[in-house]
Amino acid sequence: MNTIPKTLTIAGSDSSGGAGLQADLKTFEEYGTYGLTAITSIVTMDPDNGWSHGVTAIDPLLLKQQIKTATAGGEIAAMKTGMLPNVEIIKIVKETLEKGDIKNIVIDPVMVCKGEAEVLNPENADALRDMLIPLATVATPNLFEAGVLSGMGKLKGLEDMKEAAVKICALGAKSVVIKGGKSLENGDAIDLFYDGKEFEVFSLPKLPTNNNHGAGCTFAAAVAAGLATGLSVRDAVCKAKDFAYAAIKHGFAFNQYVGPVYHAAYRLCK
Predict the structure, then answer these.
(1) Number of domains observed in the structure of the chain
(2) Which terminus of the chain, N or C, has fewer Cβ atoms within 10 Å?
(3) What CATH code is carried by the domain that includes residue 99?
(4) Is 158 exposed, middle or buried (0-12, 13-18, 19+ CB in 10 A)?
(5) What pLDDT shows up at residue 1?
């Protein structure tokens, strides 16, 4: 019997390769897991129009067929969600997770594309909060997403992050990591972990780079892969922090508009 742990991502496709399911698969491979995908949307960026984003949702029936295929090979050790472009797709993911066949569930509540300022669809935020956050082993919102999910709006510091984390766990998530990253106005890149009882701050010096496209997806995928390989939630988060940090540190410019993280950096760039 093959004992390689299987990891599933239900996410959007980023044709530039830095984020989305491409980032997830690269991360899963680096952790030694077998990655599976169900594509929810295809994201394109137009270099002739300032790298403007286009999001095309996959037909819901096709998503169901993908999930059926991906789960036909036996136990899924862990899974994560990424971009879920509409409420109908969020409902399909909820139905999949409620079957109880996947024990480690990472909900990455993607609400905006990198470089975009508006929530993709405001009704999606409500559906994510009500349908998926209660099913999460770990929820991994960034600072903006945590503000939306908690109803607090803009989070301005660590105390706000703690309050938001408590509110998100109260929605049903077993634990939460708020990815503060470089967004907080201090010298460190801070992520806050809350297990429903205690807080832990993971802090590393900010990196002087804009080559961080895909960092959030990569972090969430690393948490999922860590859980799949048997790490505790806390240890999976700790390792994911180091994995994503190395990926950002060794990121590179894809073109004049975007610079992705380098997913093999944790292994190759010691």
Answers:
(1) 1
(2) N
(3) 3.40.1190.20
(4) middle
(5) 43
Pairing between strand 138-139 and 105-107?
Answer: parallel
Q: Does residue 253 belong to any structural domain of this protein?
A: yes
| Residue 80: other Cβ atoms inside 10 A | 30
Residue closest to 10 by CA, chosen among 194, 159, 135 = 135
User: How far apart, in whole angstroms, are the C-alpha atoms of residue 45 and residue 146?
Assistant: 26
- pLDDT for 115: 45
Instruction: Give ∠ CA 238-217-139 in degrees, rounded to 5.
Output: 60
With the C-alpha atoms ordered 155, 157, 160, 165, is the resulting torsion angle positive or negative? positive
Q: Are 130 and 91 in contact (CB under 8 A)?
A: no
Phi/psi region, residue 108 (left: phi>0; alpha: psi -120 to 50; beta: rest), is beta
260 is written with which tokens?
Answer: 């992705």
pLDDT in tens, 124-148: 999 999 999 999 999 999 999 999 9
Residue 151 located in a structural domain: yes
**48 part of a folded domain:** yes
